[in-house]
Write a structure and sequence with these properties.
heterodimer; A: mainly alpha; B: alpha/beta; two-stranded antiparallel ribbon; 14 helices; globular
Chain lengths: ~475, ~375
């Protein structure tokens, strides 16, 4: 079921109403059954895959916990990883490897067509729930958490519908304790949830869905008919579209969970206000960045993982060594590959690794510069390059990436425009809107929060948001992150 | 400032919903239909019918009905006239007036000839090429096609949803005329668009179990909530209000010069070249004309580019064996009109595209005389 639909709104109202009338155990059953129904609204047969993932890691995690022998514990962990990643590989990456293998074979003059009838439908959310179930088993293996004894509790964590399709990537240690206490109903849950859901729907159906045609039309133009200014504009515009789209999903997920008294961690924090590439990844898809750091980057650096550390994936100080840089680039390539089975996503990942490395190099020379100046110059320098990074993310082949990137280095490509004037106007206005929203959130909201003025402003804002959602709510497009 | 300890559900949830609904009812009450917004209040969309069958359409779903009417009328020697809103829009319209297609239709009747019109607002030449290919195959008896080449429509791009119907996509996947649109990406891609990609309010749910529940709920809301039925008109009005706001804040007026967009120009001009080449290979008479333009004020074009454009069109049309008419100065200034300002305020702006009935009579007369003389 997709969030930007009337079906979801009706579904959520029914689930929330029933949820608060049930005892604790029955609530877990309700969450489980309603979540499977939610997932089954897409393709019912794929719920079995989801249940299999839950059963597998429930038993393996409990098995690991019962064993003392490190070798046997590791063996069980490896079984979990192989099965989970194997399923992910089959559904998401098999066709990619098949195609590349074919290309290599055919480059030697063969005419090979491997598995010509292979057609695989990617189960939505598989990348997200696979990561969640892997992190659970790894945490049990690392003795960071005790395994859940109640299967329904574990199943309800994994399939909990708000985060099931596109995150945030949750940790069992954050959610299971919340499931295992009986929460009392408070109106504040509903108010907060309503605000988050409406804000999310506004971002999706009013902003992202209306930017989408401009982005699609822009990227449909052949590269030779676009100027360098168009490339920059399109990268910004797609950057806004994907931000509004994904932030919307996270906001609705957080709001829906909140209505049931469950608190998710924030997934976005004004990412385009980041003053460096490193800071960007502390503000963008925060749950995935942390996951990658804890389960990929730190193990690759050879550092022992400690759960009270607050490292981010680009922050390890010993990483000036070859091993550190290798870990950084490999992590980012994997991060890109997680997003999609295409070389363009790998390029996107490596591009960010390069940005982080350059930032590290530059930051050594910035001592003595005042912080406000550093922040402003950091923002001005980082934002265009962060936005430019969306080009390989959006286009579908490397030759187009190359054509787009080359354009921006030719001065002659800055003298004309290849799109309608509206595209540039809209892009500029959204940038201004983002800056304004950030400044209001940082400087105005804290001073008026929970005051009469704040309340009044809130009613005005929500009235506008609700009115726009009523007018624009249509399931015309899925959330971009569904495809990952 | 006094702090509020417990936010109220009434104030935070119910009040915004109620006020939002009241606001939307009030907003839509004074607004126009989506169809009327594009042309402005002063111009009326007129598509004539004869014996209850259309002789001029701006929606492809009426193509079969138009064909039926032509057959019932004796399948006379046929010309097809394509174009944009200049063909179907009558400025300062009064009841009983008619447009150029109907004038031309009436003039041709005694000669046992007839004409049918197909026009879309802001139609670009890619869409015109697509329509020409489609309609000349739907009406294989058509002998002549008439196509105006509008300079400002060279800025337009893409194919409207109406022209992406299943019938159209099927035609373009099988069409033997591929060579005439292979180099036009927007048309070439039509054959590869599946139903899920077609525009529609529920395209994200295509072939999912949710599609049925969503359609049911949507139909219930349509049935029982009047505001729900007006949502598309409200959306159109919101975009129109934003357009007016943009024009006001950036000082954009009807006569503000619009720059040509190189990529779009190239695709549209390729479509034009393919169109005349197709006409030649299909043994069709082609009549290309530069449409009337108000000549007492400077148009919103770069005049140097516009002059070069006209010469190129004439050269390429003639080279391909098409008949070329320069109708730029055909309609005198008094037959043109104004439209409500597209900026805030109550003023009027010059309408460079649509003229009054007399203008339609003049162009209908010119085209019909050309058709009568050419065969």
């Amino acid at each position: 079921m997709i969030f930007n639909s009337i079906s979801f709104i009706i579904f959520l109202i029914i689930v929330v109403l029933v949820y608060w009338r049930l005892p604790k155990t029955a609530r877990l059953w309700l969450i489980t059954l309603s979540s499977l129904l939610f997932y089954g609204f897409w393709k019912p047969e794929y719920t079995l895959l989801l249940i299999f993932a839950a059963v597998l890691d429930y038993f393996i995690a409990n098995g690991i916990d019962r064993l003392e022998d490190p070798v046997k514990r590791k063996r069980l962990l490896i079984i979990s990883l192989v099965l989970n990643l194997g399923i992910l590989f089959y559904f998401k990456y098999l066709v990619f490897f098949k195609d590349n293998f074919e290309t290599v074979l055919n480059s030697f003059g063969n005419n090979v067509r491997l598995l010509p009838y292979l057609k695989i439908i990617l189960p939505i959310g598989i990348s997200f729930y696979t990561f969640e179930t892997i992190s659970y088993t790894v945490d049990v293996y690392r003795k960071h958490i005790k395994p859940e004894k109640n299967f329904i509790s574990y199943l309800s964590f994994l399939v909990f519908f708000p985060h099931l399709i596109a995150g945030p990537v949750l940790r069992a240690s954050d959610i299971l304790p919340q499931f295992n206490v009986k929460r009392k109903f408070e109106w504040s849950h509903i108010i907060e949830g309503f605000r988050r859901i409406m804000t999310g729907l506004f971002l999706k159906v009013v902003l992202a869905d209306n930017i989408s045609p401009l982005v699609d039309q822009g990227f449909a133009i052949e590269a030779d008919k676009l100027s360098a200014l168009d490339i920059w504009t399109l990268s910004f515009l797609f950057g806004f579209q994907i931000y509004f789209d994904f932030c919307a999903y996270s906001s609705i997920a957080i709001g829906a969970a909140r209505m049931m008294g469950i608190r998710f961690l924030e997934n976005f924090n004004f990412p385009y206000m980041a003053v460096s590439p490193k800071a960007f990844w502390k503000r963008w898809h925060i749950s995935l960045s942390n996951w990658i750091k804890d389960y990929v980057y730190l193990p690759l650096t050879g550092k022992k993982v400690s759960y009270d550390q607050q490292y981010s994936i680009s922050e390890i100080r010993n990483s000036s060594s070859f091993k550190g840089y290798a870990a950084l680039f490999l992590t980012w390539a994997l991060m890109g590959f997680w997003h999609g089975a295409n070389w363009t996503f790998i390029v996107w990942g490596i591009y960010h690794a390069v940005l982080v490395t350059i930032h590290r190099g530059i930051s050594g020379f910035t001592k003595g510069i005042s912080k406000p100046l550093l922040n402003i110059s950091g923002w001005c320098l980082s934002l265009p390059f962060l936005m430019l990074g969306w080009i390989p993310f959006r286009v579908t082949d490397l030759s187009t990436v190359k054509a787009y990137f080359f354009k921006i280095f030719y001065p002659s490509q800055y003298s004309w425009l290849g799109m309608r004037e509206n595209v540039y106007v809209v892009t500029s206005l959204i940038m201004l809107f983002c800056i304004l929203a950030y400044l209001v959130d940082k400087y105005v909201v804290p001073s008026i929060e929970n005051t009469i003025v704040g309340q009044f402003a809130n009613v005005i804002q929500m009235t506008f948001v609700v009115a726009m959602v009523i007018v624009f709510l249509r399931p015309i497009s899925q959330f971009i992150y569904f495809q990952f | 400032m006094r702090r509020i300890k417990h936010p109220s559900i009434l104030l935070n949830v119910f009040l915004p919903i109620i006020v939002a609904i009241i606001f939307l009812y009030t907003y839509q009450r004074n607004k126009r239909n989506a169809e009327e917004i594009g042309l402005g209040e002063s111009t009326f969309i007129y598509t004539p019918y004869v014996n209850n069958y259309p002789i001029h359409i701006n929606n492809i779903s009426l193509a079969d009905s138009m064909k039926r009417g032509w057959e019932l009328n004796g399948s006379k020697l046929l010309s097809l006239w394509f174009g944009n809103s200049q063909v179907h829009g009558i400025n300062q319209y009064k009841d009983g007036q008619q447009n150029c297609i109907q004038f031309c239709y009436d003039y041709l009747q005694p000669a046992n000839k007839t004409i049918l019109g197909i026009s879309y607002p802001n139609a670009n030449l890619q869409e015109i090429l697509l329509s020409v290919l489609f309609f000349t195959n739907k009406f294989p008896q058509a002998k002549t096609i008439i196509v105006p080449v509008f300079y400002d429509d060279m800025r337009e791009d893409g194919i409207r949803n109406d022209l992406k119907s299943d019938e159209m996509r099927k035609f373009f996947s099988l069409s033997p005329w591929k060579q005439f649109y292979e180099n036009i990406p927007s048309i070439a891609s039509l054959a590869h668009i599946d139903s899920a990609q077609k525009n529609g309010d529920m395209k994200a749910l295509h072939e999912t179990a949710q599609e049925a529940s969503e359609k049911f709920l949507d139909s219930c809301l349509y049935k029982y909530w009047s505001l729900w039925t007006k949502r598309s008109a409200i959306r159109a009005n919101i975009f129109n209000d934003l357009y007016i706001l943009r024009n006001t804040s950036l000082g954009i007026k009807a006569n503000t010069i619009r720059k040509m967009i190189p990529g779009r120009f190239k695709d549209n001009y390729n479509a034009f070249l393919n169109l005349v080449a197709y006409g030649k290979s299909a043994n069709l008479h082609i009549l290309i004309y530069i449409p009337p333009l108000r000549n007492d004020v400077t148009p919103p074009f770069n005049m140097e580019e516009y002059e070069a454009f006209k010469q190129t069109v004439e050269h390429d049309a003639t080279l391909a064996g098409a008949k070329f008419l320069m109708l730029e100065n055909l309609v005198p200034p008094r037959y043109w009109g104004a439209k409500p300002s597209t900026s805030m305020g109550k003023g009027q702006e010059i309408d460079f595209m649509h003229f009054q009935q007399e203008g339609h009579r003049m162009i209908g007369d010119t085209i019909s005389k050309t058709l009568l003389n050419s065969e």
